Amino acid sequence: MKTLYLFMAFIVCSFTFNAQNSDNNRYLNTAERLMKTDGKLTIGGYAEVHYNQALDSDIKNNGTLDVHRVVMLFGYQFNERTQFITELEFEHVSEVYVEQAFLQYKINNALNLRAGLLLAPMGIINEYHEPNTFNGVERPHVDKLIAPTTWREIGAGFTGVVVPANIRYQAYIMNGFNGYDEDNGGGKFRGQDGLRKGRQKGAESYISSPNLAAKVEYFGIRGLNIGLSGYFGKSQSTLYDGIEKDDKNMMAMADSSVVNISMIGADVRYSNSGLQLRGQLYYNSLGNTKEYNEFTGKDLGKSMLGYYAEAGYNVFSTISEIKSELIPFVRVEKYDTHNSVEQGATRNKAYAANVITTGITWKVAPNAAFKTDLQFVKTDADDKANATFNAGFGLMF
Q: pTM score, two decimals?
């Protein structure tokens, strides 16, 4: 809980800085940058290569090397109001995904209609996951297990920037997580990694009930960006397909395969000269988990919690002759996918962990970085922490 208190204090302290007009382009992902470029056709992308080496004084472990992802982005502007953006991802050399594919129509300066394969606007990393935008070789555990990156679904909604209020917003109706697929293994959710296995990713997705995802960001203080996000709805189930509405037994069975999801998040990023601070909090409240676990044989928790606080400093910030950035950092993280369980169920301590990641990011150019870090993970079930050395590079263009 100490980390949670530090995170909350960090947000409160952020508001003590004097308000100033902020550059609302400070925090943009690659797709958003493409949308602001001139020309009919625009191209961008990002990539990262990783080396991971488990460290154990008693056991020898081989390291792993991976071209984790190479991503190409393409944008096309039909006219001054209409744009299309798509993101094609190659993971681990052999896997191909479409990460985004949406059409946007500008109604006015503060209102845009957006539809297609959309990133769920939750937290920081799910939208701003380009490797040069965060410290550490790997993404935070919270962003893998509590609100799983890269989380995207098909939907439609509105987005825009209200400049006088220094507000950026998004609100979408989307298909939900695939919680139960009768033809492909049944239940998808489990205590170990929560909702992660239920991401449909726009690949022949189906919908049994719509879900709402929304986020509001405030950027009215120079260097500061604060976000509040929410996701509400139900998981999807193939058992609803083809059953008669007055068949109470089949409807009851289908209802048992569904989880009610209420997810809230808060995030903050602050930069001033060489100082870089960020923090994030997620809380997932899940309903109908007792019925779901009994029906599927899974061990999904009733609630999940994750948060982290991170501080870094560019030691070259006061040396004008040096154009690169050297950023030592430390991130303290906590997650628990069994934060609470249904009465009578057993909480698995292995699903909760404290994580400390410390390392150095060397940005040899604004959008290209070499990274290295040490990561220590200690679950509530372990007597000692597991250590991993990570190294790699990331870039965005």
A: 0.89
